[in-house]
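Q&A log
Question type: sequence-to-structure
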Amino acid sequence: MSSNAITTGAGQAPERKRNRRGFLAAGVATGLAALGLGRLASGDPAMATDGNPLIVGNYNLSSEPTYLVADGTLNATTLDVGNDGTGTGGTAIYAHTAATGGVNSPAVWGNSSASGGYGVLGRGSVGVNGDAGTTVQGVGVFGETTDTTSETYGVYGRTQGSQGRAVFGWSQAAAAGTGVWGQSNNDTGVGVRGYAWDNGTGQFGTGVMGTSGSAASPPPPPIPNTGVFGVSVAPSGGAAPAGVVGDSTTTAGVAGFTAAPGRAAGEFTHTAGGVALKVAGPAQFAQSGLVAIAAGGKSATVTGVALRAASLVLATVQNPAGVLVQNAAPNVTGSQITISLNKAVPTGKTAQVAWFVVN
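Response status: OK
Response body:
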């Protein structure tokens, strides 16, 4: 036997305990026959067995692991399938396991203990292709990390091109498919998080962008310094299609918050001069209220109202009290409004005055 031969069932690998597996002859023969590997089941003498070199073009049976160990500067194994001249190629490595046990019995298992190493590295027009076939709740590609103390990634995608997609999910279902699904099982988790990082430049992009109704490429450009940007360029279904739709039966459908001076928590602009805000149903404003002025009174002061220099106060009497509002004067410094009537409220009457602050 040549010193360069790869020997099947070579026994114990360097610094690794020998992994013995007993094979039941009947079970092995049945499994091989089911796979169409009759020569293995029949014990063809042309096969390589334990202690013999691998024979190219034949099935090789071993009851012990076979180890290929490189010195750290070369690949342990290089398999190359070239073009056969017909425009098609073969498979460099095909692995199959009929064992049960789920993730504990993989057909291919790659492990790298080096820092920055790859357990499995695939390159090509499709680097790695995982196909669960018709398996119920099958998983094409499964990524997992068990480190609970640092930032880790179950699945990590990276691209350098401006039109590249680091992670691309595409549902081709006829109906009700989902391109990307994120789920969290606790109240402090996040199902899907989008983060636009400035990378030290001070320039932030859009964290999450959703576009509906357009097949154009590239899609509409993102908006800098935006957490969520929703674009609807055509009706996309539902009772009220829109760029962003919020719907809830227990909490607010959409909530906006800001601490930026001079900016509003919600800002609406119709760029074509149309209606900027349309409300279907009652509208409730914190800067509004109702004040009662008793008989003989001619004014009332409402305190605790947040006012600005540009604030305008609207006030009107809500009941037939025989008086009118003469003026409603905002006091920005005192955060209060003074409502004055044209005369004192008549005896036996109470004036109910509604007020509302805009700007």
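Response note: Helices lie at 25-34, 38-42.
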